[in-house]
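seq:
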Amino acid sequence: MRSPMIPSFAIMSHLVGLVEITSEKWRMQDKGCRFLVMGSEDRVRGQDKGLTGLAIGQHVRRAREALGIDLATASERLASVGWPIAKSALSRLENGQRRVDVDDLMALSVALCASPTELLLGGGDAVVPTAVPKSLIDDEIRAWVAGYLTLDVGEIAQWWRNEIEIEQARLEGFEDSRAKLSDLGVQPQTLRSSDKLIGVTRARRDFAADRLKVVTAPGFDLGIPADPTTTILIPGDASNHGEHQAEA
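struct:
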């Protein structure tokens, strides 16, 4: 069977099977090889967007609206930082109809005066991002994205221990300050802000303590591939200070 003729204006790639032209999309099949000719504004589509990809457009819109600018102005700001995205493409991005790659993410963060973490995760309690263990909570996910910890149960537990110490120190400082104000005869209604701060800090400390119990409980598992470089301690083995390579 003869192969169908390929238009001379199309440059076909036998490696990736992708061609960009400015005409309408069309597809052709030839001996099991799939070729795709795309419009100039289209991107290669892999698997469907995950939770992060579906949510990031909403986060971009929220950041843009927080600046009080419209799509046209946002597009101009992107062009000014060297990564132009057309107004129409930006609209599709915000509506979840266009993927956001890592270059887009960085440029959008600069142009919209937002952090990459903010655009990735949004504000407040966020949906668990793509592939991230559902056993993690928002605080842990944000700390991981920010580089404060890795997806290791031991590191997560230690992070919560540190949080408990920090909140306990803050709590003691706030309580001491309130006691001094009270000794000076400050009226109770004036101390309400101090009482509120003390309550919030105590709640945060108690939350950290409760979460530490969860992550250190037997059976807590992230359910992800282990880091083959991680070491574990085996009590009683003094030959190498108890360090052994963990099994992959």
